[in-house]
Amino acid sequence: MKDISEEDVVDYVTRLKAHVSDHERWRTKETLNLLAAENFASEETRSFLSSDLSNRYTARDNFYRGTKYSDQVETLAVEVAKKLFRAKFADVRPLSGHTCSMILFMSLLKPRDKIVTCPPKYGGYPGSSELGLGPLLNLKNLYFSYDPEVMNVIPADSKKFIAKESPEMIVFGSSFIPFPYDIKNSLPEDYQGITTYDGSHVLGLIAGGQFQSPLNEGCSILMGSTHKSLFGPQGGLMLSNDDRIFSLIDSKIFPGIVDNVHLNRVASLCYAMIELLKFGPEYASQIVRNSQALAKALAESGVPVKCRNIGYTKSHQVLLGYEEKVTPQIADFLQDCDIIVDAGIRLGTSEVTRRGMKETEMEEIAEIISDGLVKKKSSDELKKRVQSLVSEFSSTVAFTLR
């Protein structure tokens, strides 16, 4: 283009590299990441993302040649996923957890079918509600009876509601998920619809045998994101033991919803799942211990923590009990301290656990947070303490094969 000078090109490249470098330095070396929706992948896991696979196509219809080795990557990833999650079937083609939901709804439901999920106002995933895919696919969104005091479905009420409405699909799982669901007692015995579980936040815990086992508790499909408690790349994963339902899903994914599966992502996910095969139980149990230690220390220091009377949490999430109108300001203040959280003040321990932190560090983190939120100490003072803590763990990755 005539209006693009060499100086422009150099400037754009320089700025791009600087932005990425600044991000990497700040987020991996200087901040304490407590985002429940994120994790830290090992160097080996990330290395596959920049391999030659990142430029290559794959297709189930064998339209593209040159895939004799790359096809084996997907085959191996499926094999590892089935072993890790103790499932009969697995599909690694979905590009995200949201894509998994879209695949399920488009493959198994018809317009005007009813779908029951956790209510968005209590942390149910908006993408599956009337705020997201529901109206786009002309589905009727219904919601579980839910108790915000314990952040969980009310089994008896949900059973009656489902019996009355006879929805075509039920989706357990939520963006705010401190405790497992009582799946069996939330369903009528004669329910004939499809029961699924969105494990986006807890796939890593499920893989480690720490949270619950949806495929053994009445769910036909387990699906979700692969970059939260599961420390892989961003992407999606679907698992099942149901021949009929999985064959329906498998027949619809390509070419209607996913064409190119991004094989570099698949290879990266495969490596992360191999790490979990070896370290899953140890990793998952440490996450829960860290979450409980963080929650307890925060509560004892005056920070409001939800679900105190029932043990705070059994997942990677600690939910703070501030009013919604003030949570964005709290999140901004903590970011000024180099502590990264979300606007819902949902703290996550996945990444700090992956960095090698344990209960002692959780108590230190709680003290820093409470000093800011309760004692009103300055962000400048707290940032120095964050930097000191982070510097001890910025070069470490626990639960990896190296």
Quick description:
The protein is α/β, with parallel strands linked by helices and 402 residues long. It has helices spanning 6-30, 43-47, 70-85, 97-108, 133-136, 155-165, 203-207, 243-253, 263-300, 327-336, 350-354, 359-373, 379-393; strands at residues 32-33, 89-91, 114-117, 140-143, 146-147, 152-153, 169-172, 194-198, 221-225, 236-240, 317-319, 339-340, 346-348. Helix 4 crosses helix 8 and helix 12 (359-373) packs antiparallel against helix 13 (379-393).
Question: Could you explain how this protein is built, in words?
Answer:
The chain is α/β, with parallel strands linked by helices. It has two domains: 33-40 and 279-393, Aspartate Aminotransferase, domain 1 (Alpha-Beta Complex), CATH 3.90.1150; 46-273, Type I PLP-dependent aspartate aminotransferase-like (Major domain) (Aspartate Aminotransferase, domain 2, 3-Layer(aba) Sandwich). The protein is built from 13 helices and 13 strands. It has helices spanning 6-30, 43-47, 70-85, 97-108, 133-136, 155-165, 203-207, 243-253, 263-300, 327-336, 350-354, 359-373, 379-393, and strands at 32-33, 89-91, 114-117, 140-143, 146-147, 152-153, 169-172, 194-198, 221-225, 236-240, 317-319, 339-340, 346-348. It has a seven-stranded mixed sheet, sandwiched between helices. Helix 5 (133-136) links the parallel strand 3 and strand 4 (140-143). The model has no long low-confidence stretch (mean pLDDT 96).
